[in-house]
Design brief:
single chain, alpha+beta, Dipeptide-binding Protein, domain 1, Dipeptide-binding Protein, domain 3, seven-stranded mixed beta sheet, globular
Length: about 625
């Protein structure tokens, strides 16, 4: 006869089974709350930067022979500015914690962040900032924003305070000093001649940023960075980063799909359509590329040599501007990824652009009328000639890449206007040399520029009182060899303005001259585009929100892909928020992104939460059934 189980034994069993259930659920819950990080220490982020030239030096003050954007984007990992501009235009304090300007605009006081270390362990102090400011005054060739001439004195009353006294107010000075210059260490560079120093060896590349340089191979263009464990903002999740500089013609979509790149800058929008079909890749858009402490917006310009005939005639340059169909360039060459630039050089939506600024719009008839009024003779073939019978010819130089899509369209437009236009593709070195010495007519420039009003208006103005002669070299700001004292007077008045309203008035006057004289013909502004991997890495939300990469926020957010047992913020982003374009106004680009958002599936890892949840339900069901059977037998 079967022995009857006592009531006490029965309840002990119930308690034991219940305890096991609670333990299992607790373990599963802990897994749900704490995502499992796979291979965090081994994860290697590979950042690919398409470039028109090689990265040949890492001078923190100014690029010497390297392409500016390539140089600047790479150094974002290593060096920091005093503050960094966010996508919404606000400033995030970095090496500076606070700042203020005296009522007369002539004294700027900056309080620095404490407990910041250089990568070699030396403390960062106010002396380093003072050294950078002194370098700006000593070496004006690297003074991109022309602030040096306004600095009268620099004081460091303590290790965390810098006081800058100006000889006269400069309304844009604070913004420029906070965001426009990398801070580099005095103890490394105090005896360096910045006109010659290439800074190639990692021992000279010492910053305060979240990553430090450990290897640099200038032959293969591969650079290895490692997380700085003592970074003031906390050590990054990603421990190692490989930066690969590649040619602009490199097959970036294939490199992303095969794992050669974890993230890549997309400098040619045509590539987007072949990227969006891969479920493990995403596209993000920002208003510009991170550069120093601000954003540099991609732009297409025609730079004009105003020192040679007939390009020295204002009306002739205006005829060129009328002849070009900018919207066609955006739709065909940029796949809709851009907007027409204002004739006054700023973006159309800039708060500094006056609403009543006269714009030069596409008008072939107007272009031909101007050419006739200048004495050019129209032949039976509808092409214009000089009075001596030779063809009116214009050659456009460029360096290939995206320009090879843009320039043929411009050539068609100019020929339709009766100008015998042609193109010549040069190496970057030959291209810059021709611009510097004035050995060109028109240059197609694919550039990246801050949308700051003062910089945009003055960047290609010859800073001499008279145009730099052909055959004498000039920095990039003198490439057009355009000089206009009236224009300069409005810029100076805007800089001295004590209110934004007053500054706006004078910058508007300067834009009127820019729109009239067209020493630079602005074609378009576009967006910066990234493609990135969501299978192996997560934490891309800041990039998707328009912050760009690499910035302080995005570098500290990206992490190895995390698999969690229940959907959490650290898993792959929801499909409906995969792409978050910032101020995308072109119809075509919006259509591309919308299609992608609603048709792409997440990586297969995202099925794991569903599988685990189902397993939990099954286990609980089995336990409940077992308890029920025991109770039934007891009864």
């Amino acid at each position: 006869m079967m022995k009857k189980t006592s009531v006490k034994t029965y309840y002990n069993r119930i308690i034991a089974i219940t305890s096991v259930i609670i333990l299992v659920i607790s373990l599963l819950s802990s897994l749900m709350i704490s995502p499992v990080v796979l291979g965090q220490q081994e994860a290697l982020l590979k950042f690919c930067i398409p470039s028109p030239g090689r990265l040949v030096e890492l001078n923190p003050y100014f690029y010497v022979s390297s392409p500016p954007l390539t140089h600047g984007m790479f150094l974002k990992f290593i060096y920091e500015t005093l503050a960094e501009e966010r996508s919404d235009g606000s400033l995030e304090p970095l090496l500076a914690q606070s700042w203020n300007v005296s009522p007369d605009g002539k004294i700027i006081t900056i309080k620095l962040r404490p407990n910041v270390l250089w990568h070699d362990g030396v403390p960062f102090t106010a002396r380093d900032v003072a050294f950078v400011l002194a370098t700006i005054k000593k070496y004006p060739h690297g003074d991109v924003y022309s602030i040096g001439k306004y600095i009268d004195s620099i004081e460091t009353p303590d290790n965390l305070t810098v006081v800058i006294k100006l000889s006269q107010p400069f309304s844009r000075f604070l913004y420029y000093v906070l965001t426009g210059y990398r801070i580099f260490p005095e103890h490394i560079y105090k005896d360096v001649d910045f006109t010659q120093f290439p800074a190639k060896d990692p021992q000279y590349v010492v910053g305060t940023g979240p990553f430090r340089l450990v290897e640099a191979n200038y032959d293969t263009q591969v650079f290895k960075l490692r997380a700085f464990e003592k970074y003031w903002g906390g050590s990054p999740y990603i421990k190692d980063v490989i930066v690969q500089i590649v040619d602009e013609s490199a097959p970036i979509p294939i490199m992303l799909k095969t794992g050669q790149c974890s993230i890549a800058a997309i400098t040619n929008p045509v590539m987007v359509s072949s990227i969006v079909t891969d479920p493990n890749l995403r596209i993000a858009v920002a208003r510009g590329w991170p550069y120093q402490g601000s954003y540099y917006t991609p732009a297409g310009l025609l730079v004009i040599n105003t020192a040679i005939y007939p390009l020295n005639i204002t009306e002739f340059r205006r005829a060129l501007a009328y002849a070009i169909n900018k919207e066609r360039i955006i739709q065909l060459a940029l796949q809709g990824q851009g907007v027409i630039a204002s004739s006054g050089q700023l973006p159309m939506d800039s708060p500094w652009k006056p609403k009543d600024l006269p714009e030069i719009t596409y008008n072939i008839t107007k272009a031909r009328e101007i050419l006739k009024s200048l004495g050019f003779v129209e032949g039976p073939d509808k092409m214009f000639r000089y009075p001596n019978g030779s063809l009116l010819s214009i050659k456009i130089i460029h360096t290939g890449g995206l320009a090879s899509n843009v320039v043929p369209l411009i050539i068609q437009d100019l020929r339709n206007a009766g100008i015998d236009a042609s193109e010549e593709v040069l190496t970057r070195l030959a291209y810059v040399n021709d611009l510097s010495y004035g050995y060109y007519q028109v240059a197609m420039l694919l550039t990246n520029r801050p949308t700051d009003v003062d910089f945009v208006l003055t960047v290609f103005m010859d800073r001499n009182l008279t145009p730099t002669p052909i055959g004498q070299p000039t920095q990039y700001w003198g490439w057009t060899r355009y000089v206009n004292p009236e224009f300069n007077s409005y810029i100076e008045k805007a800089r001295l303005a004590t209110s934004e309203e007053e500054a706006f008035k004078y910058y508007a006057k300067a834009q009127e001259i820019a729109a009239r004289d067209q020493w630079v013909i602005p074609l378009y502004y576009s967006k910066a585009i990234w493609a990135f991997n969501v299978k192996d890495f997560s934490g891309w939300d800041k990039l998707q929100a328009g912050e760009g990469f690499p910035t302080h926020l995005t570098m500290l957010s990206v992490r190895p892909y995390q698999i969690s047992l229940i959907t959490s913020p650290t898993t792959s982003p929801p499909v409906t928020t995969v792409i978050s374009p910032v101020n995308v106004t072109a119809t075509v680009s919006t259509q591309i992104y919308t299609t992608y958002i609603y048709t792409t599936t997440l990586p297969t890892e995202s099925m794991m939460p569903i599988i685990i949840t189902a397993a939990i339900v099954i286990i609980i069901a089995i336990v409940v059934i077992a308890l029920y059977m025991m109770l039934r037998r007891k009864s």
